[in-house]
Amino acid sequence: ETVAIGLSGGIDSTVLLYAMAYINRYSPVTYDIQAFHVETFIKGSSEKMKDFAESLGIPFQTLSIHGQGEVPEKGVCYTCSRLKKGAIIEFAKANNIRKVAFGHHADDFAETFFMNLFEHKRIEGLNPVSHLEKGNLEIIRPMIYLEKKTIINMHRHFELPDLEISCPYEETNKRQEYRDLLEEFAKTSGLHKPAKRIVEAYFRTEE
To answer: Which residue of 50, 88, 186, 188 has the lowest C-beta tally within 10 Å?
Structure first.
């Protein structure tokens, strides 16, 4: 079976690709890995990602979204997300891939949870396993219980490369507001691993 791993250029997906390659090398249960990056409205070089993937013996492919370079006036992040999803589905179908892995972690879950709660009035986070295309494509998030700090430490410990492609909308989007809110809460509450607590509480409630 092939697992496709999305590389954004951030340290989360970099650590995920490294970890999946390491596990695949030493685990009795093996699988094929295909890395990919989706170029969006914000063009950036994916050569570093390609070099990193190939250094691990993993094939790499760059995908392009429809309308690349045409930045919409409103709803940039939402539009980008929808177009990326479409590109990934097309890529998976063309390559007969049934599993796609992303580097979402506990902090991402907490941000999404509170965004959905306060912006959309629904209780919903990021599932470790979800399905697209009527169940034909499985989305997995192996690091959903790991906090960002742990991933940063792993990136530093294994001396992994910096593949970052910066997005000019990252610091001003709605998600950043909730990221700042959660960071402030972590500082003032004194709780140990608050993002991980939110993930664990959410899935314990769903059981």
So the answer is: 188
Contacts of 45 (CB under 8 A, 6+ apart): 165
Q: What are the DSSP E strand ranges found in 42-181?
A: 60-64, 99-101, 129-132, 137-140
Q: Which fold has domain 2-206?
A: Rossmann fold (3.40.50)
- Nearest to residue 107, comparing CAs of 204, 207, 15, 194? 194
Determine the Cα–Cα distance for residues 77 and 104; give it in Å rounded to an integer. Answer: 17
- What's the burial of 140, exposed, middle or buried (CB within 10 Å: 0-12/13-18/19+)? middle
Stretch 65-93: mean pLDDT, rounded?
77
Residue 73 has pLDDT above 70, yes or no: no
| Alpha-carbon Rg for the chain in angstroms | 17
Which residues 6+ apart lie within 8 Å of 109 measured at CB? 125, 126, 144, 195, 198, 199, 202
Residues 28-33, mean pLDDT to the nearest whole number: 91
The one-letter amino acid at 121: K
How far apart are alpha carbons 202 and 205 in whole angstroms?
A: 5
Q: Which amino acid is at 124?
A: E
Contact 173, 77 (CB under 8 A): yes
